[in-house]
Structure formats: structure tokens, C-alpha cells
Amino acid sequence: MRRTRLDVATKDLDPPFAIVDLDAFDHNAADLARRAAGHPIRVASKSIRVRDLVSRALERPGYSGIMCYSLAEALWLSEQNVSDDLLVAYPTADRAALQKLAANETARQRVTIMVDSIEHLDFVDAAIGPHSDIRVCLELDVSWRPLPGVHIGPRRSPIHTPQQARALAARITQRRGFKLVGVMAYEGQIAGLGDNPPGQPLRAIGIRLIQAKSGPELVARRTAAITAVRQVADLEFVNGGGTGSLELTGSDPSVTELAAGSGLFGPTLFDAYQSFKPVPAALFALSVVRKPNKRTATLFAGGYIASGTPTPDRQPSPYLPEGLKTLGLEGAGEVQTPVTGKAAEQLKIGDRVWMRHAKAGELFERFDEVHLVRGDRIERTVPTYRGERRNFG
């Protein structure tokens, strides 16, 4: 029984604390590699935020390189020699980090920054002055736009068409001090949107329709865009996908690598997918501190709300013991989280409840360390980014 195993492993710890079940983590890593079908997976560090676990993923077959979420993070990971292939997934306006990049030859060879406009190049030039080749990746928008004025997908790059991609690529290659080495095209309307949201059958139908229509369109447009960009630049990589869309992205002949991170931990947002089911690997434990009534137990702390839309699916969820749920009028709070259900009848003061976060790496912004559990024991305890005094926003 998983609850018993985790309780035994952590019996000497006082909640709140966080764990990663290494058996589940390794299982999820193997399943992601299977789904990638031979494409290398770039590890999305935003979804992990534990240096030890980023390295653990990279040690496995099928994983290569890191997708960082800030330039400062990429520079730090380079200093720590975690990887020599670091792609920053979002454009940067961090002048200090750009200056540090420009001054470090090793970092310039390892780190690739994201751009989607000439303004990004102008910003870099203004921040650091004359410089040697800075590696850059062009981001292509692959949101679905079925009708004029209709945008389905994340609001990211303004570069949407093959013609726009070729034009920007040409200008980058002509620009002194920059080297275009890659293209990234992230289909958030598929990779980050579950097609089987629990208890929402009509929403599920709508999402599946959107994904069925947008999938073929994005593969065709991305392939055309990469063909156009390759006419003016020698690309080292074309990155696409996310945990939720590995199969679709891998079917695109223009893509050379995939990206994934959340699937290693299996947060609750990924319960809404039909085609795969990661095992919950990242959990946190809370203590019962009150029993307001027979069927309610109040836990200490727990209000670890995920980013994104302010909807119930961004709240943490009780996991073990089974049969618990939060209260609709109170939810998960800063200092207390009431849970109710038949299982609450058996809970006593001091018992622990295991919780799951809605997203992946955001959980570890709440803890300085994470306990890595194997079987019924803690294999070791390692620092999170926060525990290493690193905060990248």
C-alpha cells in the first residue's frame, strides 16, 4: 500500500515536507522516452527546480540538454556543469545576465537565448555593446487561428507564418554578433491542455475538436516554416512539444527534439489526458491539526496554488488516504486546509495527509529541500533551487 510505504519512509519527519518517489520518477522518465519514439527529450527545468533531479533525468537514455526558464538559471546551471546544452525558453530582458553571458566564453558556447523579433537583438546590443556570437533560437508561434481574430493557444511569438519566420531568420543571420542555431515551436493548446478534464464532458469534446483540427495544421505550417528558415540558416535543432504532445510533435518530420518536464512528476493537471497517465511522483505531506467534526479534518498550511487561470483545477488536491476532498468555500489556505470525506473519519490529530500540486516544479518554490524516497526509505535529501538560494522568478 503506497500510503503505508510513504508513511514508513518519512516517519521521523514533521510535516509540511515534500518528497519525490524515485520509483515513480524513473517510471515516468522511461514512459516519456517511450512516447518520444527515438527523439531526444530536452528537460524542462521549470517543471523540476531541483538540480539533482534535472541531472537524474539527463543521465537516462533518451534525454539531452535543458530547456531553462531564465538566462540567469542557464548561467548557473552552466557554472555547475549540469549540461553543456542550455536553451532559454523565454526572451530575456535581464541586462546583468546578458553581460555575464557575453563575458564568459564557455557560457556563450553552451547557452542559447530566445528571440522572436529584431527588438530582442537590439536589446542585447544595447545591454552588452560589441560582442562575439551570441547563440539564438527563433521562436515560431504555433497557436491555432481558425478565423480572423481567433487565437487558440499561448500568447507567445509574433512570428506565425513561414514567410515571417524566413524573414526574421534572414535578418538574424545578417546581424553581426549573433548566430541562429535553432527554432522552437511550442503547441501549448495541445501539450498543456488536457483533453479529458474530469467531470466536464462538454469541455472535453470541445478540447478534442480543437486539438484534432489544430494538430494537422500546425504540423504542416511548422514543416513549411522550418523548410523556409533552413534556406537561410544552418540549424542545429528544431524543438517542439511538451509532456502532453510528444506523439504528435514526434510525427512532425521537421522536429529534431522534444521537450518535457512536468510528466516526470505527474501533477494533477495531467490527470486530464486520455492518452497517458504519469504516476504521481512529487508529493507533499500536511499534518492534521483539528477535527471540526466527524467528517472533516483540518490540515496545517497547504495553500500552494498553481499559476495560470484562477480556477479550482489550480488548487492542490488530497491524494492519500483516498476519499478526501477540499471544501469548495474554503479550498487550500495559507495556514489551514480543511478536507472532508469518509476517509476523514479515521484521521486523528497528528496524522498526515499526502497532497499533490496542480503543476510540477512550482511546488518546490515552497520547500528548501526534497526527500527522495525509494521503496520504504529515504534514499537521500537534496536541496531545491530555493534551498540553494536561487530564485529565478
UniProtKB/TrEMBL annotation:
Matching SUPFAM superfamilies: PLP-binding barrel
Pfam families in alphabetical order: Ala_racemase_N
Domain Alanine racemase N-terminal: 20-190
CDD domains per UniProt: PLPDE_III_DSD_D-TA_like_2
Annotated signal peptide: none
InterPro entries: Ala_racemase_N (IPR001608), D-amino_acid_metab_enzyme (IPR051466), PLP-binding_barrel (IPR029066)
Protein name per the record: Alanine racemase
